[in-house]
């Protein structure tokens, strides 16, 4: 059984994934992982994944385990957390632990092994975001879970171990510390100003127009004022809302998000071919209800190995690329 | 001029190092950096670094720029922050920025290009820690600085761009967010219990003896209860103290620390040959005075590329190696 442990000083939760346990000699340094070969995510290989929890066939939600799907969601075969069991919260002296109960799923974004999501029709990209929404809504019904992290690792340097385009979802019985800090920071601004800080950021960015990458009717992509890495980019809805699900209930919004996301990713890929990246959806906790002070968004963080250092471990970042320049490069990449 | 920027939600400070600015095409993916060749840190090449700020020759502190040094400290030739100027704190709408004023120094740990610090006599390793102490004390006198981060990147995967054994120091006009969270977490425990949480951790670890790697009269090395990565290891003084400098004023303490640190690193290297790692000194802010609730220590974080993923960007970690097992491997590595 995996285990969740809390750092007693920082309040940071860690998953100890015993099922993925290795001997020290397995931590081979700089050995590139073998990608390619047999792919369990490809159509026809459905029996090599755990049974699907959701799939769209002809844009209709189904559960079948056969082929002919457009987007397919399956449990991770090597999950960091497991779905069955109770939380078993307990102390070990001054430490806190609980069982590693949660869900770990893989969102297979397209059938073709070689497709890049952002090159597919916007209707297909919208199906991927619809899968995020539908899984979030379903997992919200499990009272053991407090947060669902949805993220994508693209490229080996960003931690992807499979080539076939996919994102992942982890449902957690605790709130990740980064989100707690974010909610607290946003709340303290709200108490002071009575306004959402992200709404203020969007207003200022649109007015200054120095760090805007692109935008459409409902969404905006910006280089944040204090980016951790070159070309870090956030995508936010222009209208206030703390929950991804609430905002993406209509097909119009899904298409609008898909369109702006694809546009942004194409710009990034044009500036830095084959860029490895992670993105993470920041949304409200499960069952929290609407939060006046928080604003859901995606944070896209390119993983450029040549600059990653001790920064990741200390929360202190050195970035050689001012966001105003990054935004300019991204703006001009497709417009010229 | 480099610039410090604060994320308005998280309070995270970022250095925008314009001097290190690159064009997008310079961010080449997966191109290994060229190490080796001419080394500016080697004896005889003293003129290729900025003038030294401190060196020990025959274990005596000197400033000379000639050879025959044992440990030498020089400003970084490509600094993330610069030493001259005022802070120029200002707002840009709702954002906060200031000039990137600070010090960025390189501690050259030994003259021989191929030496591994932990294999050198303990008296030599103690000189490196003495350099940390002496530079901390000197930089404390500059009222513009609030914190000095001392860290070592070892191995390319951990961000080292020079092969010659060295560590680095960055003096900052702000407190890094990770340290702020650590001070706050420790303080809230102290308010509740009237005891230092790290003292309680040491007591519990010594009593349970499940996660202790090694110890001597004054220091202890443990696998922390909630480690971010396999083989993460902390080194703490057994006696309470919040400041590295106060604790390392005597040669006895420097030798004791050097001895336990070398012992720990040899164990790590035995378990994972050529392990890339970062370590960071966590100590009190400059001029803070003794803090009852904080306890200085080193955090050693191996950088095992095969498991790094989106974790670094979200503060949420999945670790396949329980610390009890890591500690057992490390204990048995040299004892068997």
Topology of this protein?
The structure is a homodimer of 336-residue chains.
Chain A: E1 3-6, E2 13-16, E3 54-57, E4 60-62, E5 71-75, E6 90-92, E7 95-99, E8 103-108, H1 122-139, E9 147-154, E10 166-172, H2 177-193, H3 197-208, E11 212-215, E12 219-222, E13 233-237, H4 244-247, H5 251-271, E14 277-282, E15 297-302, H6 311-314, E16 317-319, H7 323-335
Antiparallel strand pairs in A: 1-2, 1-7, 3-4, 3-5, 5-8, 6-7, 8-10, 9-10, 9-14, 11-12, 12-13, 13-15, 14-15
Task: Summarize the structure in words.
The structure is a homodimer of 336-residue chains. The first copy, chain A, folds into two domains: 3-177, HIT-like (HIT family, subunit A), CATH 3.30.428.10; 178-335, HIT family, subunit A, CATH 3.30.428.10. The first copy, chain A, has an eleven-stranded antiparallel β-sheet with strand order 4-3-5-8-10-9-14-15-13-12-11, with helices on both faces. The first copy, chain A, has a four-stranded antiparallel β-sheet with strand order 2-1-7-6, with no helix packed on it. Chain A is globular, with a radius of gyration of 20 Å. The first copy, chain A, has helices at 122-139, 177-193, 197-208, 244-247, 251-271, 311-314, 323-335, and strands spanning 3-6, 13-16, 54-57, 60-62, 71-75, 90-92, 95-99, 103-108, 147-154, 166-172, 212-215, 219-222, 233-237, 277-282, 297-302, 317-319. Chain A has seven helices and 16 strands. The first copy, chain A, starts with a strand and ends with a helix. In chain A, helix 1 (122-139) crosses helix 5 (251-271) and helix 5 (251-271) crosses helix 7. At the A-B interface, strand 1, strand 2, strand 9, helix 2 and helix 3 of A face strand 1, strand 2, strand 9, helix 2 and helix 3 of B. Strand 2 of chain A pairs parallel with strand 16 of chain B, so a sheet runs across the interface.
